[in-house]
């Protein structure tokens, strides 16, 4: 009975998320929010009592995480986009709502349906990791116990292998940058802020759709649409698009390149791989009640 109630609330939340995403075209920030909740997990800590290993537990809401550098700009997604939904469906945990909003965002933006599980409990580590919480850098010097702090491949493997992921997961998940933008005022990784932009992001241009925020720099031209254009377009080096060292290395490194080339050639192969990797990411460190989870 408890699980049935949760499922009904999750279904209601999914409708509310769908309406939100369609009306505001906020798919990208919702995907990034969920990834940064998940991305604090480290399997080296998996033996510690839950939720000390971090992960998709809703702890991105803590001041410690949301006010830290890697999460710059994400607070809006919690307070303005998801809080009004949470108030309507209090039975849905924050950890679930954050992951539900992301999976729904991918779907509404044209991407694959992700075989998600719900029922996550909310938690926050008593002894949280210091920023950047094991999350990746886009530009050198890259963090982590690296032999070469200028090597984007070594950095990506350090970040994603601690989730129990492999090279295919890294390339597939990087494909999430087919949507979204970077901002000077958030990560500071690009020159374009809210008031600037490229021909694909500047105030008044058609690529913004219903987005509330203009500016920034996107990886792709149609950055509201989830497709495989991250892979098909990167080799063209469009001067209005982003290509960080952590993106371009995917075209070169022998472990990444075969996946990159396949995803460029075959969107269905990208979608299938992305759906699996996204599900894996969404369950890092999560504790489910009921333990087998709830599917919608
Ligand atoms: C592989 C290593 C990764 C690096 C170095 C990286 C880096 C970044 C940076 C610097 C930004 C710009 C943030 C800003 O200025 O607002 C960004 C945005 C974004 N990232 Fe990543 N990211 C990585 C992986 C991922 C993964 C795994 C996902 C999801 C599966 C993801 C999804 C996104 C999305 C959707 C945005 C756009 C957010 C928006 O438009 O508001 N990224 N990323």
UniProtKB/TrEMBL annotation:
Chain intervals for the UniProt region annotation (Disordered): 120-150
Keyword annotations: Oxidoreductase
Record's PROSITE patterns? PEROXIDASE_1, PEROXIDASE_4
Q: Where is each Plant heme peroxidase family profile domain found?
A: 92-296
Q: Mind telling me which Pfam families this protein's record contains?
A: peroxidase
Check the record and name the Gene3D superfamilies matching this protein: 1.10.520.10, Peroxidase, domain 2
UniProt GO molecular function: heme binding; peroxidase activity
| SUPFAM superfamilies, per database record | Heme-dependent peroxidases
Task: Provide one Gene Ontology biological process annotation.
Answer: response to reactive oxygen species
Q: Enumerate composition-biased segments (Pro residues).
A: 127-143
Q: Which PANTHER family match?
A: CATALASE-PEROXIDASE, THYLAKOID LUMENAL 29 KDA PROTEIN, CHLOROPLASTIC-RELATED
Q: Which family does it belong to?
A: Belongs to the peroxidase family.
Give the protein name, as stated in the record.
Plant heme peroxidase family profile domain-containing protein
Please name the source species: Polarella glacialis (Dinoflagellate)
Lineage, opening ranks: Eukaryota, Sar, Alveolata, Dinophyceae, Suessiales
């Amino acid at each position: 009975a408890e699980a049935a109630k949760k499922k009904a609330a999750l279904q209601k939340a999914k409708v509310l998320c769908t309406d939100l995403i369609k009306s505001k075209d906020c798919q990208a920030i919702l995907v990034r929010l969920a990834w940064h909740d998940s991305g604090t997990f480290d399997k080296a800590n998996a033996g510690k009592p839950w939720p000390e290993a971090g992960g998709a537990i809703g702890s991105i809401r803590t001041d410690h995480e949301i006010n830290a550098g890697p999460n710059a700009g994400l607070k809006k997604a919690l307070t303005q986009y998801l809080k009004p939904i949470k108030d309507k469906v209090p039975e849905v945990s924050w950890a679930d709502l954050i992951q539900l909003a992301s999976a729904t965002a991918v779907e509404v933006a044209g991407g694959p349906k992700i075989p998600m599980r719900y029922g996550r409990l909310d938690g926050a580590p008593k002894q949280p990791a210091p920023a950047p919480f094991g999350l990746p850098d886009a530009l050198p010097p890259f963090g982590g116990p690296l032999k070469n702090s200028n090597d984007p491949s070594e950095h990506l493997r350090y970040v994603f292998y601690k989730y129990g992921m492999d090279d295919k997961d890294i390339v597939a998940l990087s494909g999430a940058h087919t949507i979204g933008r970077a901002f000077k005022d958030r990560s500071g990784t690009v020159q374009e802020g809210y008031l600037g932009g490229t021909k694909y992001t500047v105030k008044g241009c058609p690529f913004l759709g219903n987005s509330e925020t203009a500016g920034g720099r996107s990886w792709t031209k149609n950055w509201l649409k989830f497709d495989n254009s991250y892979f098909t377009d990167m080799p063209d080096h469009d001067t209005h698009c982003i290509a960080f060292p952590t993106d371009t290395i995917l075209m070169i490194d022998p472990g990444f390149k075969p996946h990159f080339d396949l995803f460029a050639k075959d969107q269905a192969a990208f979608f299938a791989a992305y759906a699996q990797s996204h599900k894996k990411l969404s369950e890092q460190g999560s504790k489910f009640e009921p333990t087998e989870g709830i599917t919608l």
